[in-house]
Design brief:
alpha/beta; Signal recognition particle alu RNA binding heterodimer, srp9/1; 2,3-Dihydroxybiphenyl 1,2-Dioxygenase, domain 1; 2 domains; four-stranded mixed sheet; 3 helices; 18% helix; 38% strand; elongated
Length: 138
């Protein structure tokens, strides 16, 4: 039985910067983090050893996991992953949306929609797509 689904984000060496943005813009909490250098018998150069091997971030009631890919791999950033943020109060969306949009691209500004929700979509400065959603009638 599947208990939960969490989006997993991959980065090209800048996961730590993304974590900093998500904690400051969204109030994310780092639940656990391991770096490539924490691996037993690891022999990575210092710039690789400090990269994130795995992080679990709590955002609201959900969890997002992420990592920097190994240095011999590359991530094509942008269109294959998105994270839906479900809000309980429509007024919470705008400030968090604006904070996460800095340096990124707004795909749909936050607005009240025909499906009776406050909604917006953006790509952050790391190329991750985010959707912000809150029902307007509770």
């Amino acid at each position: 039985m599947i208990r939960a689904t969490q989006p997993y984000l991959n980065f090209n060496g800048d996961a730590a910067d993304a974590i900093e943005l998500y904690t400051s813009a969204l109030g994310a909490e780092v639940v656990s983090i391991m770096r490539w250098g924490d691996m037993p018998n690891a022999d990575f150069p210092p710039e690789v050893a400090k990269r994130v091997m795995h992080v679990e971030l709590k955002i609201g009631e959900g969890v997002v996991m992420a990592s920097d890919v190994p240095p011999d791999q590359k991530v094509e950033v942008g269109s294959t992953t998105s994270v839906m943020l479900q809000f309980t109060e429509p007024g919470e969306i705008d400030g968090k949306f604006d904070a996460l949009a800095k340096g990124g691209q707004v795909l749909m500004p936050v607005e009240n929609t025909f499906w009776n929700a406050r909604y917006g979509m953006l790509v952050d400065r790391f190329g991750i797509r985010w959707q912000f959603h809150c029902p307007l009638d509770g």
